[in-house]
Design goal:
Blueprint (H helix, E strand, L loop, with lengths): L1 H44 L3 H9 L3 H10 L2 H30 L7 H30 L1 H17 L1 H27 L2 H11 L6 H13 L4 H4 L1 E2 L6 E2 L4 H8 L10 E6 L1 E10 H4 L20 E3 L4 H11 L3 E5 L5 E6 H9 L13 E5 L2 E5 L4 H8 L4 H6 L6 H9 L8 E4 L2 E8 L4 E8 L7
Parallel strand pairs: 2-3, 5-6
Antiparallel strand pairs: 1-7, 3-4, 6-7, 8-9, 9-12, 10-11, 11-12
């Protein structure tokens, strides 16, 4: 009887160890599969445009399938995540079964059993199923992507994975729509409040200025950023070719402008925009050369157009300059892509800019400005928001215009206007306009 029990015990243990052996082999295979799928996630989504171009140039089904999968990134990610989760769940179930078989719960301390079932299995899964393959794939993205492209496509076409993939993609699309809707519902005031709360944490105050510029960007219209017609260099359509070259290129072959408006009879009748680069191939032509054919169609925008809409228009039309017109159809000035971008990133200077011509700082409380200086530029120099000036002004956009509005006349030299704690003294003027202004900031006293 004892020998019979021994035989049964031997058979039972051999069956157990056979099951254990198969389980271990199966777990190793599943870990390898998990490693491949996890590595594929990093490999596919770390491919740069140049990597994708290289793969597209390669012959074979693997390269073709890789490009097809990359064209639908949401579906690809869904296949990878669903497959990886199925594999990881299978590994955990098998590991738990193996642990219970080798270490029966009634024979092993509960703490040791917990360490085996949770800590050990988690570490094995993370190390061999996630960390190592992802580190490898980050350095060998093209190789892993090509190797896994066809298997992932086959897996994605199987019924259960395909069904779950569609459900996951549709679910994420719904979530994305809701998130986008919530973002759209955020007002500029909400964003301004968030930036103000985070301002103390920003080490670089330049970043803060850019964030504030983005918030205020949609509030500004073209009239606030345009260049006045008085400051625009334009050419008359009847100029002969050599007169034109002298005007826009100069005797030394240097031009301060890349685009010049072309008008007929008066600046209120713009008929085209001349690109200086279009003139260069014809520099040696005779005086009767018909340069007017080189002028391009102008793009007109109203003064009240918002600059964020203007930026979109520039992008869609692939243009850098627009002619600004007032409500009566007259030309107010021009606005360029630089003018728009400066509202976000600040002043953009080039080799022709001369900031000393715009203003001079005498001390912390005294400045000399040209009368044609835009109010918005004055705000930047003084580092103020300018809200009080904007509320007080009517149609003016320049310092000279603001002073004339406040005084009700064109001031003469040494006459002054006081606005709150700012004193504007005319330094130079003629019967038609104010040319130069001295701005003095009076010290404010706090009254209790």
């Amino acid at each position: 009887m004892d020998s019979l029990e021994l035989v049964f015990a031997t058979i039972q243990w051999s069956d157990i160890w056979l099951t254990v052996s198969f389980s271990i082999v199966f777990i190793i295979l599943l870990l390898f599969a998990s490693a491949l799928v996890s590595g594929a996630e990093v490999a596919f989504f770390s491919l740069t445009p140049s990597d994708q171009e290289k793969i597209g140039e390669q012959p074979g089904k693997a390269a073709e399938t890789t490009i097809l999968l990359l064209q639908k990134p949401k579906s690809l990610l869904a296949i990878i995540l669903i497959t990886n989760n199925f594999i990881n769940v299978a590994i955990i179930i098998l590991c738990s079964y193996l642990s219970s078989t080798i270490f029966p719960p009634d024979q092993v301390d509960s703490l040791i059993k917990f360490l085996i079932d949770v800590v050990a299995i988690t570490l094995i899964l993370l190390l061999f199923g996630e960390v190592i393959p992802k580190v490898y794939s980050a350095k060998n993205g093209q190789k892993v992507a090509l190797f896994m492209a066809v298997p992932l496509k086959v897996i994605g076409n199987t019924f259960p994975i395909n069904l779950l993939k569609k459900g996951l993609v549709q679910g994420t699309s719904l979530i994305n729509k809701k998130v986008k809707k919530r973002v759209k519902d955020l007002s500029p005031d909400d964003l301004a409040g968030a930036i103000e709360l985070a301002s103390e944490a920003l080490d670089d105050k330049r970043d803060l200025e850019i964030y504030q510029g983005i918030v205020e960007f949609g509030k500004k219209d073209v009239k606030q950023v345009m260049r006045s017609r008085m400051d625009v260099e334009a050419v008359e359509v009847n100029l002969n070719f050599h007169e034109l070259l002298n005007r826009v290129v100069g005797k030394k072959g240097n031009s301060h402008f890349s685009r010049v408006p072309v008008y007929k009879e008066s600046f209120d009748h713009i008929v085209g925009v001349l690109f200086v680069k279009d003139l260069l191939p014809y520099a040696e032509e005779k005086e009767n050369f018909d340069w007017k054919a080189l002028a391009r169609e102008p793009y007109f925008v109203p003064e009240n157009k918002k600059i964020d809409d203007l930026l979109k228009s520039f992008q869609e039309r692939k243009m850098h300059m627009a002619i600004v017109v007032d409500e009566y159809g007259g030309t107010s000035g021009i606005v360029t892509l630089d003018d728009v971008l400066e509202e976000i990133v600040g002043e953009i200077s080039d080799e022709f800019d001369d900031e000393d011509l715009t203003y001079s700082k005498l001390d912390d409380n005294n400045y000399i400005f040209e009368g044609k200086t835009a109010l918005i530029d004055m705000y930047k120099v003084l580092e103020i928001d300018g809200d009080r000036f904007e509320e007080a002004k009517a149609e003016s956009d320049t310092i000279a215009g603001f002073i004339i509005e406040q005084a009700g006349k064109i001031l003469k030299k040494n006459e002054r206007v006081v606005f709150e704690h700012y004193t504007f003294t005319v330094e130079a003027a003629d019967s038609r306009k104010i040319k130069r202004v001295k701005l003095t900031i009076q010290q404010q006293t706090n009254e209790n």
